[in-house]
């Protein structure tokens, strides 16, 4: 069963933690991709200098103003795209970056999307590296800003997140977020959550 609006409209930190273990599903034609979310980062408000939307609403960040459950995708380094889930109620800005997935279904097609070659003579390391980073998982699942920016995970027929049992505190670790040393306010927040000992967590 897909997650409902109430799940996403909660506090951003709670959503980031509770997304761990949930299944991201993307259906494109005959291709069905599924991946278990194993790592997330919370970006909590405009005062959080690590947040991509900390400068306020622009055409690029406008979806952050919508109700929780919408998809926010942005570009980094001019070549990669990152997948975020909008959180909180409409007008309260927050988002969760999905940093890593454990592939569940559609692995052969994900492999082809990610490495641009057929799923033959593959190595186990390649499967782990396929989705163990925020840009990698977007490539593997063939998710694009052009097609999915602003899509609603609650109602869209192409993409959604399926529920699963909430993990225990003992199964979850948290740390500082990655690659935001430039953020004087926010770089030390412990807002990265990941499943302990899961090999698909980013390195």
- Taken as a percent bin, the fraction of beta residues is 25-35%
Helix content: 10-25%
Question: What is the CATH homology-level superfamily?
Answer: Methylpurine-DNA glycosylase (MPG)
**Based on the structure given, which CATH architecture is correct?**
Roll
Rg measurement, Å: 16 Å
CATH class: Alpha Beta
Broad shape = globular
Quote the average pLDDT. 95
SSE series: HHEEEEEHHHHEEE
E-strand count:
8
Q: From the helix content, strand content and strand pairing, which structural class follows?
A: alpha+beta
**SS element count, helices:** 6
Could you tell me the CATH topology label.
Answer: 3-methyladenine DNA Glycosylase, Chain A
The total number of structural domains is 1
Alpha-carbon distance between the two ends: 31 Å
Entry keywords:
single chain, 203 residues, alpha+beta, 3-methyladenine DNA Glycosylase, Chain A, 8-stranded antiparallel beta sheet, 6 helices, 8 strands
Polypeptide structure, described:
It is a single chain. This protein is an alpha+beta fold and 203 residues long. It has 6 helices and 8 strands. The chain has helices at residues 5-8, 12-18, 107-115, 124-131, 134-140, 145-148; strands at residues 23-28, 31-43, 71-76, 80-86, 95-105, 159-162, 172-175, 192-195. Strands 1, 2, 3, 4, 5, 6, 7 and 8 form an 8-stranded antiparallel β-sheet that branches. A hairpin with a 3-residue loop joins β3 and β4. It is globular. The mean pLDDT is 95.
């Amino acid at each position: 069963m897909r997650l409902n609006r109430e799940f996403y409209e909660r506090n951003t930190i709670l959503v980031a933690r509770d997304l761990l273990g949930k299944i991201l599903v993307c259906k494109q034609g005959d291709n069905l991709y599924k991946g278990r979310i194993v790592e997330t980062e919370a970006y909590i408000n405009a005062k959080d200098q690590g947040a991509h939307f900390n400068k306020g609403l622009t055409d690029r960040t406008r979806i952050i103003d919508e109700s929780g459950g919408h998809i926010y995708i942005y570009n980094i380094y001019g070549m990669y795209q990152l997948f975020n889930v909008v959180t909180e109620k409409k007008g309260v800005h927050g988002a969760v970056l999905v940093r890593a997935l454990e592939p569940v279904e559609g692995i052969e097609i994900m492999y082809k999307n990610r490495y641009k070659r057929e799923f033959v003579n593959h190595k186990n390391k390649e499967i782990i590296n396929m989705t163990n980073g925020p840009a990698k998982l977007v490539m593997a699942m063939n998710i694009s800003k052009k097609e999915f920016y602003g899509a609603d995970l609650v109602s869209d027929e192409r993409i959604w997140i399926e529920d699963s049992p909430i993990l225990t505190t003992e199964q979850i670790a948290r740390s500082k977020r990655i690659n935001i040393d430039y953020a004087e306010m926010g770089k030390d927040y412990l807002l990265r959550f990941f499943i302990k000992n899961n090999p698909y967590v980013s390195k």
